[in-house]
Specification:
The structure holds two protein chains of two kinds.
Chain A (H helix, E strand, L loop, with lengths): L3 E4 L2 E4 L5 E7 L5 E7 L5 E9 L2 E4 L7 E2 L9 E3 L8 E8 L8 E2 L3 E5 L1
Parallel strand pairs in A: 2-11
Antiparallel strand pairs in A: 1-3, 3-8, 4-5, 4-9, 5-6, 7-8, 9-10, 9-11
Chain B lengths: L3 E4 L2 E5 L4 E7 L3 E9 L5 E8 L4 E4 L2 E6 L4 E6 L8 E9 L6 E2 L3 E6 L1
The chains are: A mainly beta, B mainly beta.
């Protein structure tokens, strides 16, 4: 049973729309991450946070932004969606020290038309 | 930047057979992790092996780590159709706390 929740599961949206992908975890993890994954490809880190009011860009440049106002909540926002943003977005969290690896949400599959 | 690379890219076996997947990486690591991803879903953490460990078991999974060769292998014994998924290795490079994923091995277990 997942302890990290992503909504929506699927989203089809028109070009130019603003969207927010939600991610919440109930484990009290300090560290949270957003990965982008195209079908059949590897995951690329786009944003991460090590605690409240702390956010950093990942290895893959992204036009999205994130916020971390509460420990359990790490939403990702696209101000103006484009077809190139079509992808799967995966949220994950981990505790300090990473003794047990990352816990992933089920992902949001975004299609921009 | 890609750190881990899995081999083979795809593997098809019969139920009951063993499946072996390999992972090579480039830099020194703190630990190496294996994940499973069912089609279109999130990843599930399978096992974590630290840089000072050489072998680890979890149920039907066996992971080895050879830091001198910068490589790891994941063995799934007595495979089942439900093991059909993509398997990713991920490393935590030394000095970093972020996981870096490889491209994955797509495993198909035929009933």
């Amino acid at each position: 049973e997942a302890d990290i929740y992503q909504t929506p599961r699927y989203l089809v949206i028109g070009t130019g729309k603003k969207i927010t992908l939600e991610c919440s975890q109930t484990m009290g993890h300090d560290k949270m991450y957003w990965y982008q994954q195209d079908p059949g490809m590897e995951l690329h880190l786009i944003h991460y946070s090590y605690g409240v009011n702390s956010t950093e860009k990942g290895d893959l440049s992204s036009e999205s932004t994130v916020s971390r106002i509460r420990t359990e909540h790490f939403p990702l926002t696209l101000e103006s969606a484009r077809p190139s943003h079509t992808s799967q977005y995966l949220c994950a969290s981990s505790e300090k020290g990473q003794r047990y690896g990352y816990t992933f949400g089920s992902g949001t599959r975004l299609t921009v038309v | 930047s890609q750190q881990g690379e899995e081999d083979p890219q795809a593997l098809s076996i019969q139920e009951g057979e063993n499946a072996t997947m390999n992972c090579s990486y480039k830099t020194s690591i703190n630990n190496l992790q294996w994940y499973r991803q069912n089609s279109g879903r999130g990843l599930v953490h399978l096992i974590l092996i630290r840089s000072n460990e050489r072998e680890k078991h979890s149920g039907r999974l066996r992971v080895t780590l050879d830091t001198s060769k910068k490589s790891s292998s994941l063995l799934i014994t007595a495979s089942r159709a439900a093991d059909t998924a993509s398997y990713f290795c991920a490393t935590v490079p030394g000095g970093s706390e972020k996981l870096v994923f490889g491209k994955g091995t797509k495993l198909t277990v035929n009933p």
